Amino acid sequence: MTNEVQVPELGAIALARYLWRELTSMRTALVLLLLLALAAIPGSLIPQNSQNPMAVADYFNQHKELAIWFDRLSLFDVYSSPWFSAIYILLFLSLIGCVLPRSIEHFRAARALPPKTPKNLARLENFETWSSTGSELAVAKNWFKSNHFRLLEDETSISAEKGSLRETGNLLFHISLILILIGVLIGGLFGVRGSAIVNQGDRFVNNVTSYDTITFGRINNEKSLPPFTITVDKFVAKYNTLTGSPEDYTLFVTTVAEPGAQPKKQVVKVNSPLTFGSTRVYLQANGYSPIVTVQDKKGDVTFQGPVPFLPQDGNLRSIGAIKVPDGDPQLGFVSSFVPTYARSADQGAISVFPELLDPKLLFSVWQGDLGLDSGKPQSVYRIDTTKMKQIALSSLKPGEYLNFSEGTITFEGVVPWVNLQFASDPGKRFSLIGGIVAILGLLASLFTRRRRIWIRVEDGEVQVASLAKNGAPGLATEMAEFVSNLKGI
Amino acid sequence: MSAQDWAYLSNYSIYSAMVLFTLAFFGHAYETAWAVRTPIASDERHGNLIAKTLDNSRTQKAMRIATAMMILGFAFLFFGVIARGISAGRVPWGNMYEFSITGALAFTGAYLFALRKYDLRWLGVLVSFSVLITLGTAITLLYRPSAPLVPALKSTWLVIHVSAAIISGGVFLLANVIAASYLYLDSMENKGPRKAWAQRLPSLEVLDQLSYRLVAFVFPLWTFAVIAGAIWAESAWGRYWGWDPKETWAFITWVAYAAYLHARVTVGWRGRRAAWLCLLAGSTFLFNYVYVNVWGTGKHTYSGL
Questions:
Q1: What is the pLDDT of residue B1?
Q2: Exposure winner among A283, A432, A444, B64, fewest CB in 10 A?
Q3: Domain limits of chain B?
């Protein structure tokens, strides 16, 4: 009876053992490595939700059938897909299963003494023999010691070994990869990423509603946001006068680290972010916000303020939408803005320089239903005009206004906006340490040679020989040095 | 001298370097072809020397001249890269044209450096040809006027990250050329003895070892280039890794070379299989450079190209 019960259990254990051995074999690791490289490819060719959700949406519009299948196969989220995760989790299991036993073994072996001197040295590499003068063993011992060999002595011979750093480095390298992965996991659990467009002159208060987009790690939530504020005092962009390409961006801000703290004037540049504890704030993008005032037929103000427009090219021709939902009927201004106006025959209004040399706001006026109540998410830069009708078309310079059948729009002026990127990643420290240790371990493991050298003095005859464990060159030279030292040359 | 003068000077030196590399190419082509001694009629009558043989003595001079041209070309190219940097007031690694000329410099440099220790002149034809192709594409298709950097590139990490990546690329490319030579010679040897012109090329074992050594030597540097890039990305974009296409392909290259090293060291791959894997890994690097820069999207596409 008991036997019958035990057989399937043993089978399961045996199977598990078998699978574990297979998983931790080098061949499997190699296949997994190549598979990981292969699996990373589609993410660089197909637009990814994590980087460019707009491009994914475009893909859905253009190739509907294909996009649905891509979506089912997680091809728009390759790096968080089940199959990609499966490969790297298996790879890391395989790595741990390989590295852990080897580390224990290496730790033991590193303190163990080198093996005894073999009986027949003549069969080994770099064998040499000559007649003894009597002091060779002592000289050899000194030489080994000053060159940091580990030694095992007996009356007639010394066995010396060096280069265990190779395996140490190799193991450190692999362990540090695990540390990098831990850093990534911590970032995924506790990290916060967000972005917000802030107009020059406005204040950003760090709470969830201030963000345009924000994603939390799996464990934390909005309570983990530190209570700082950032006021955008001034944004300065310098452009090359010949080519119009940007040369420098500088953002001047006033920050308050927490309520009641002393306000601080600070400068942000593209490669030098602001830091609040573990949260860093980056200057990511910039553009222009035309300031407009919209009045209804009675003269009441229905909309007022700067509206961020989305740049379309290097000279900051921008598109945008001014939505006035509080009027009756609702109004929408499908607009574009050019900082330095010019006309081209085929494209209409274009911008020829990114600075505000001759700014112009061009727009068409629509009335009807903006569709804001439909519940469908809308782009802030575009207007769905399917339920609207066009009632006017115009362009304005700063200070000018337009009267149309439903009211007035005044183009008051322009302020720049900046896109601030907020990131808090408590795991990055681990990844950084992992990265540094990985390189050091790699250097140690690729450039250390593990080798053994033996010397025996018996019957008035000196015998020396050596063995390279990793076939790396240089042992012959080292032996020549050793021998000439012994011979006192 | 004005920035404009330096820019012209840079262009002229690069044109001159191209002329010198062309001469080096012809020199090497000549010595490769003319070193083969075709049996003449009188030899055949006596029944010996039926096969073609290799006789280097006649082409020693051509070989030396070709190497001299290569060194001179390197010097001009070096000056061209420096002058480009001076004209732009920064390190000359701001766009694809500048990456290409610096990459060609690193590649020639690696070859000339290796020449001090190994007689690699059999590679001269291939090296001078690849350099010419690289410089030719750079001058014709990728050329951009010398200009200051876009703000995103203004960082010390540009020097660290890009130099490490360019040097790794040059060495990976050299390892690839050698692995390809291995495959070619191997299939030649499978059909019979080596042809006369190929006799002075090193043995298959040497080629096999050499491409492995180059990869093992430069793999830590590539690892460093990727990590330095991650550190820079953290300070510029707020994340150290974002699966941007460039990052993804750098990762793929890293993983492919890691697989290559494991295959050799732990599993014991040698010869054809190892050479193919080496070529595969190297081609992911090239793909990254060409495809992602030219057709790709993402954060590594700056200033046109």
A1: 75
A2: B64
A3: 3-294
